[in-house]
Q: What sequence folds into this?
């Protein structure tokens, strides 16, 4: 029997490519995103080429009670989740005091609150199954404060720390937790965040990050940083003065 993976933010970017990777590897899918039309198109496309079952759930996960609503729908449909991928998230570029606080609150709700709730809810279900994987898409932004991306970077720092902590707690229950940390990635993320230009050595495709995620989860890695240069940068950040990191971290993004 095929295992089932639940992917949030499944309609575009890394999420959409994750859907394709897991479908190609014979996983049944529960796809969650706001756009019903995009999910329906993706389901129709994949069912033509893959022998898998696909369930679409249209839901805005930035709402405070959305995690409970999602679990209720999954339970009602009598679906068992073997892998949870918390991919949904967004960032906002600009000065903290200039960005609408309601938008920043929605970002915290989605990037932190819903991710935490879903991890908790499905970890309990996985304990009953005595197996499971929780995958949280963090970012290389998690390793340093980033001016003009202050709240976003802070949310990803939470995701990384949270994932590492529960990985220790859940290991004895046969549940693996992985934090994926991609760097700059070709997707609609930067457009949505309001970034016009990124000064980076290389930018990965969403497909590359999705394939990397699939391999990292299968290896039960706890923290997986995508890209050779990203790994080098993160390594040197550990030995750099915080004052220097604060000054240069925001210079890679132009708005």
A:
């Amino acid at each position: 029997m095929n295992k089932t993976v639940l992917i949030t933010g499944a309609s575009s970017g890394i999420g959409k490519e994750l859907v394709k990777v897991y479908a190609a590897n014979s996983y049944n899918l529960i796809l969650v995103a706001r756009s019903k039309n995009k999910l329906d198109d993706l389901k129709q496309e994949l069912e033509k080429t893959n022998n898998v079952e696909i369930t679409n759930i249209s839901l805005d996960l930035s709402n405070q009670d959305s995690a409970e609503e999602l679990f209720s729908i999954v339970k009602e449909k009598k679906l068992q989740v073997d892998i949870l991928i918390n991919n949904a998230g967004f960032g906002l570029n600009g000065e903290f005091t200039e960005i609408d606080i309601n938008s920043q609150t929605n970002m915290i709700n989605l990037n932190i609150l819903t991710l935490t709730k879903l991890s908790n809810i499905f970890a309990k279900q996985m304990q009953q199954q005595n197996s499971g994987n929780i995958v949280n898409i963090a970012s290389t932004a998690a390793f340093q404060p980033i001016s003009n991306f202050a709240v976003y970077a802070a949310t990803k720092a939470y995701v990384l720390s949270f994932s590492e902590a529960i990985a220790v707690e859940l290991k004895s229950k046969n549940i693996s937790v992985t934090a994926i940390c991609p760097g700059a990635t070709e997707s609609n993320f930067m457009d949505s965040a309001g970034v016009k230009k990124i000064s980076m050595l290389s930018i990965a495709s969403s497909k590359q990050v999705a394939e990397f995620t699939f391999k990292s989860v299968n290896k039960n890695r706890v923290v997986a940083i995508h890209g050779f240069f990203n790994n080098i940068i993160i390594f040197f950040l550990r030995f750099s003065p915080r004052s220097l990191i604060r000054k240069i971290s925001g210079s890679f993004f132009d708005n």
